[in-house]
Amino acid sequence: MERTGALLGQFRDLDQQRETVALGMWVFLLTEIMFFGGMFLTYTIYRMKFPHAFAEGSRELDVVKGGWNTAVLIASSFTMALAVRAAQMRKRKLLCILLASTMILGGVFLGVKYFEYAQKFEHHLVPGPNFHLNVPDAAQVQIFFSLYFAMTGMHALHMIIGEGMLLALLIYSWKGKYTGGYFAPIENGGLYWHFVDIVWIFLFPLLYLVDLHR
Amino acid sequence: MSESKEQHVIPFRTYALIFAALLALTFVTYHVALVDLGPWNIVVAIVIACTKAVLVVLFFMHAAYAPRRTRLVILAGIFWMLLLLGLTLTDYLTRPPATDSISFNNAPVAAYVR
Predict the structure, then answer these.
(1) Contact (CB, 8 A) for A55 and A133
(2) Which of A138, A139, A189, B98 has its CA 20 to 30 A from that of B17?
(3) For A25-34, A41-50, B3-12, which range has the lowest pLDDT when averaged over its residues?
């Protein structure tokens, strides 16, 4: 079925169709909130039990890389929001440029993350038999790093999926599929990308900024 | 009529302001973390993170312009998340250390983690 600008049979009008599509995306994002919520809960419990070890682990992270990455991800959310706006205004070229910018910024984030992970391997900070840190409660610092890799790893996986999604959106946008009045996939792609940004907004202070003043 | 919502394009200025606010809050959260506020460090960090998240949800994710039923679904998600955190913590925060099922003393943890 040709969907460009088309109203599907089960909807009364385009407004209702758009609202329904966005609502469906939000319901999916709620399951994502609960998915990440379990890890945030685990983090909270262990941080309350081992505040000192979490501070020691946190100080091993590269706060400069983490901070710049936060800015890069926020910038990618900004370009994504503008991409939805470009689709609304039916500007095909602008939409493609903004989607590509979002992909590039997301790629920069993942690149920096790669170097951070590599550094952790070099410094023997990956939980397991090779973990080594010269502090008395090194075993508990391992719990911090387990959570660090689980949470940033799942976040990075969501980013990689998001990059694939953006590539598909970019190809269809280039063909002019979303600038004829129908742009629900762009809107929903935006919701997903912003959600992933929000997860990082919480991860940054919780992982990188624990007792930084000491 | 059916085109009304599509015409509701949020001005570039709004997006730019939110972007600037998010960057400013990131800057603030880093610099506040360098100051010793005792137990208030984590409170400030969470409050700033929540503020940033609310800005993203309201403006980048268009919740401020969404119909009421969409907003209700979003609030339900946040409520469920708070249930998950809150009800679990009523358990962990009220356990006397001695009856804790998993011993969190240094030695036993070190024994089974290593």
Answers:
(1) no
(2) A189
(3) B3-12
**Tens-place pLDDT, residues A4-36:** 456 888 888 888 888 899 999 999 999 999 999
CB–CB contact B34 A22 (8 Å)? no
Domain boundaries, chain B: 1-66, 67-114
Length of chain A: 214
- Per the CB < 8 Å rule, is A75 touching B19? yes
Contact residues, chain A, for B57 at CB < 8 Å:
194, 198
Cα-based distances in Å from A158 to A59, A153, A192:
26, 9, 9
pTM: 0.90
Q: Cα–Cα distance between A109 and A26 in angstroms, integer?
A: 25
As a whole number of angstroms, the distance between CA A106 and CA A72 comes to 8
- Domains by residue range for chain A, with CATH: 14-208 (1.20.120.80)
Binned at pLDDT 50, 70 and 90, residue A109 comes out as: very high
